[in-house]
Structures are given as structure tokens and as C-alpha cells.
Amino acid sequence: RLRRLPQLQHHRVIRCELRGFGATPPPDGPFSHFDDLRALLAELRIERAAVAGLSMGASVALDFALAHPDVVRAVAFLDSILLGAPIDPQLAAAVRAVAGHARAGDIDAACAAWLATPFFAHSSPDVVLEGAGHMANMDTPAAFDAELLAFLADV
Question: Could you tell me where the beta strands, DSSP code E, fall in 34-133?
């Protein structure tokens, strides 16, 4: 379900579905999500864009920004992951602990354990939304929207 934000009336918002996800068919050959995004923007005649990606979409946004820097005006990584990062045994154990907390229904402990993993050892997020889990846009929509709008106001 898409929420409409009246504050975005001065922005053109494009939401794309990655190939093989949702209602899109699986790929039938080699492809890249970031090149698909470039083709979509070209088809829509969008020369430069602020790109935001959530979770795996953040990895697509990062790959897109690296492959097509001339098209990216700004980029927001939301609850991002880095594909291709090596998973060592310590990290694998930490991820299992996160999953255990989540399965037990202790979301606060799962979030704390996730933020304590080596994934975040060298990061300092610009924004942390209290009470939000991995899908902050659904967990705390008002706070998420406010932060995203603040980001867009600066670009």
C-alpha cells in the first residue's frame, strides 16, 4: 500500500519494483537492478535524481550511484545492507542471535543485537528512529516521513 504525502507534491516520486520481486517476473538472463533503474529513468526522461533505497534497495541505490554518478543528485540509504560483504563466523552467530530474539518476540532485544553486530561497528547512522525496526517506513511512518522530507529539503 502506497501512502501519499502531500509534502511531496513538489517532487516527482517514482517507486520501482525490482525484477523478480512482487508482481514482476523473474529474470530470464543476466541483468542488474541498478541498470534496470538507469533504463527506467532514461525511459522517463529523468536526467538527475535523488535516489532512496530501503534494505536491499539501498544496495541497489549504492550500486546505481557508483555505476551512474552523473545521474545521482543525492542518495539515501535506509536500513541498508551491503551485498557481497563477507560473512565470518562471528557475524553469522550474531545474526542467529538477532533472529532468535525476533522469533521470541523480543523486538527491542533483536534491534539492539542487530546494531551490536559487526555490520555496524564502523557506522554512525545520521538518524535513528526510536521504536522502528528494519522496516522503519511501516513501523514509525510519521517519523520516517519527516526525516525523509528533511533529507529531500536539503538536496
Answer: 49-54, 72-78
